[in-house]
Amino acid sequence: MNDLIKRAAEDLVQSEHAIALTGAGMSTESGIPDFRGPDGIWTQDPEAEKKAYEAYEMFKINPRKFWEERIDPDSAMRRMFEMFGELNKVLPNPGHFALAELEKTGVLKSVLTQNVDGLHTKAGNTNVVEYHGVINKFRCIKCANRFTPDEIDLDNLSAKSNLPPLCECSGIIKDDGVFFGEPIPEDVRNKSEEEALKCDLMLICGTSAVVYPFADLPTLAKFGISRFRTSYSGEPRQKVTIIEVNAESTPLTGTISDYLIQGKTGELLPRIVEEVRKIL
Ligand code: APR
């Protein structure tokens, strides 16, 4: 294990443009359950995962009905969003602080996260792409304009006359969190793909790498193409080192990633950054 930690530190220091890709495994040590790990939300409640897959269809078919349920204080949907809303009180863990430290050394250039908990920003990272949006924010599905909670007063929306809330551009507003099946907002997607194509090192932390199109970013980085992108620039790809830091192996292990450092991000990332500090 120590050899791999030293190897990762050397690879990071030698990189020109290292980026991190993160998932829910980063936040379990902050007390937020992941989705597919042994105690994951979907592992514990497959019904909830099924419902999550239906949310976007419901929104598309009848956005007014979706919002009536969304603001109904007694609905399961409102309770789910309020549970997520409690995330504001959760604190970053040593894994988050390690990535913030790695940015401060100048080695880490960006974090592309699937997490909606905002903990990377809270820990101090300044270049964070929230691929699946961020909880407690809202977004227009037409112009992608974002709104803070005090700009969309859910209680004021209870007057059923103004549902669904509309943006000035006349687009419908929804929670910023990306539903299953919902297109990734273009600005976020473009930035993520740009970073994946630019990087020469990708540190993949705490994700099962099974949800697309995010899980395609390592392939895009390595080969310049992916099943979701038809355009291929054609120029030969630079060598990209892909390192996983995860509690278990994933579909990337042994195929796309160069090596897996198996264990807890909250323990391993600080040790990697400590080794980076020794080399710098
Ligand atoms: N340290 C390292 N790895 C961990 C830790 C930890 N402390 N805790 C959990 N893990 C690992 C789990 O073993 C699992 O492999 O992190 C991974 C988390 O995978 P998922 O629960 O599938 O989470 P994620 O990959 O982020 O899910 C992607 O699915 O439900 C959607 O939108 C949701 O963004 C989410 C997406």
Give an overview in words.
With 280 residues, this protein is of the alpha/beta class. The protein has two domains: 2-32 and 90-132 and 184-279, TPP-binding domain (Rossmann fold, 3-Layer(aba) Sandwich); 41-88 and 138-175, 2-Layer Sandwich (SIR2/SIRT2 'Small Domain'), CATH 3.30.1600. It is 37% helix and 13% strand. The protein contains ten helices and nine strands. It has helices at residues 2-14, 41-44, 46-61, 63-71, 76-85, 94-104, 119-123, 186-198, 217-223, 265-279, and strands at 18-22, 108-113, 128-130, 138-140, 146-147, 173-175, 201-205, 241-246, 259-262. The strands form two sheets. It has a six-stranded parallel β-sheet, with helices on both faces. A three-stranded antiparallel β-sheet has the order 5-4-6, with no helix packed on it. The chain is globular, with a radius of gyration of 19 Å. The structure holds adenosine-5-diphosphoribose. The site of adenosine-5-diphosphoribose has 23 residues, from helix 10.
